[in-house]
């Protein structure tokens, strides 16, 4: 058996995911109506829920997520400083930022337009009279003036401690520009940051090899608690959101990538497998960012000078998946409450959701806050959000996969337009795979 080729990372993650789902289902059946069920084994009483679900599964999943999040701030700061200080033309930074933000806004507008069209065509809320005992009290979104003020950090160390991505990005860009203008001192410091970047990416590789176990714990915990009776009652809504997510993630991105770069979308999607699976299992673009960054630079061929800017910014403001949920949810809630929305209302939904993707960046619970803003804008009851919260967790996993794919797609477009793209790496189907497997025995 030693001569057999080791399974690739993607295959191991899929195995971990499937095994976790199966184990989760098993525990859900075992605990049906018996939350405190005890297993009698070898003369011992083993509480299944406390030991496995609240114990092993919860601890293992939380450690995995924490390990990924641990890398986000140092990765963003170090990579962005390296990328900024290496720009030969500092004026290119404004052009780079303009292209990136414009593309993210355009894809978000396409996403929500597609969602509204599909929801109006299928009518997921027609003929449904749903009642919910749950309530939803949205957090207040910040004023536009405060959004711009909050982008600039008064204390960059505090911003890093709190994981405020927009403030970290601003500070890293300014720090990198200062390094580029500091002559020999800047060059010496740049060499240190380049070495730091290599070490951090190696740490990403180490953690990626532990991903199958982390994914197993996350899936096992989720599927022991997921209420499928809720999904059944919202099956049409769930199906519409899921279908639009898949169409946008596979068709819209493929068309945009092909039209703007001429690159092969099939190669792109094949190389995005690991990052998309990470996004699905973690439900967090920020937690997936280290994997997305490695995929974009080492597998897709985007230079770090571009990827270090586009990926962190995308993880913060690119919300195509969330926009799709908002579009379908708006139509669904309007139909459930029998409210007729005009064409101008739907155009307002598209505009509000697109701009809110930047305005609410970094706010906890951003998806539901954005949806509350959209509903209020067109006069729909915010309480309607309580109807869809039950299935939002599973949809959130798919939304994150779409978001990280969008981050990588925009990175490729911007990188190619800026001449910071290696097509040979993109076309090489094995690019980046040589570091995929780490022999942990050599680390002892």
From TrEMBL:
Keyword Cell membrane: yes
Tree of life domain: Bacteria
Transmembrane segments: 12-31, 51-81, 101-122, 165-183, 203-223, 235-256, 346-375
InterPro entries xrefs: Na-dicarboxylate_symporter, Na:dicarbo_symporter_sf
Transferase is among the record's keywords: no
Its membrane topology: Multi-pass membrane protein
Subcellular location: Cell membrane
Entry keyword set: Cell membrane, Membrane, Transmembrane, Transmembrane helix, Transport
PANTHER family: PROTON/GLUTAMATE-ASPARTATE SYMPORTER (PTHR42865), PROTON_GLUTAMATE-ASPARTATE SYMPORTER (PTHR42865:SF7)
Name of this protein: Dicarboxylate/amino acid:cation symporter
Organism: Rheinheimera aquimaris
């Amino acid at each position: 058996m030693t001569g057999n080729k080791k399974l690739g990372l993607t295959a191991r993650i899929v195995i971990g995911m499937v095994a976790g789902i199966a184990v989760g289902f098993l525990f859900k059946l075992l605990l049906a109506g018996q939350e405190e069920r005890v297993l009698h084994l070898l003369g011992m009483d083993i509480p299944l829920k406390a030991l496995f679900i609240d114990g092993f599964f919860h601890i293992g999943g939380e450690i995995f997520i924490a390990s990924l999040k641990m890398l986000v701030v140092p990765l963003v700061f170090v990579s962005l400083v390296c990328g900024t200080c290496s720009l030969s033309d500092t004026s290119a930074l404004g052009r780079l930022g303009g292209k990136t933000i414009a593309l993210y806004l355009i894809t978000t507008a396409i996403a929500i337009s597609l969602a509204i069209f599909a929801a109006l065509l299928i009518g997921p809320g027609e003929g449904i009279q749903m009642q919910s005992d749950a309530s939803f009290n949205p957090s207040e979104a910040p004023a536009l003036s405060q959004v711009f003020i909050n982008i600039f950090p008064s204390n960059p160390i505090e911003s890093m401690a709190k994981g405020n991505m927009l403030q970290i990005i601003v500070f890293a860009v300014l720090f990198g520009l200062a390094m580029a203008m500091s002559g020999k001192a800047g060059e010496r410091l740049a060499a240190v940051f380049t070495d730091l970047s290599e070490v951090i990416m190696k740490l990403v590789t180490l953690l990626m090899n532990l991903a199958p176990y982390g994914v197993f714990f996350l899936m096992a915990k989720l599927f022991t608690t997921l209420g499928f009776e809720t999904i059944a009652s919202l099956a049409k809504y769930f199906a519409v959101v899921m279908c639009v997510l898949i169409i946008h993630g596979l068709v819209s991105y493929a068309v945009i990538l092909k039209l703007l770069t001429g690159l092969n979308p099939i190669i792109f999607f094949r190389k995005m497998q690991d990052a998309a699976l990470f996004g699905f299992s973690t439900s967090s673009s920020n937690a997936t960012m280290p994997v997305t960054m490695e995929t974009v630079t080492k597998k897709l061929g985007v230079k770090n000078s571009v990827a270090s800017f586009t990926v962190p910014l995308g993880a913060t403001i690119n919300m195509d998946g969330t926009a799709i949920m908002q579009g379908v949810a708006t139509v669904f809630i309007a139909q459930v409450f029998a409210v007729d929305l005009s064409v101008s209302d739907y155009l307002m939904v598209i505009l509000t959701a697109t701009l809110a993707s930047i305005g609410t960046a970094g706010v906890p619970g951003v998806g539901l806050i954005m949806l509350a803003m959209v509903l209020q804008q067109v006069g729909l009851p915010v309480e309607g959000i309580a109807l869809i919260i039950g299935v939002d967790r599973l949809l959130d996993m798919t939304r994150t996969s779409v978001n990280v794919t969008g981050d990588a797609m925009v990175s490729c477009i911007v990188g190619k337009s800026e001449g910071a793209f290696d097509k040979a790496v993109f076309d090489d189907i094995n690019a980046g795979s040589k570091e995929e497997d780490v022999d942990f025995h050599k680390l002892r």
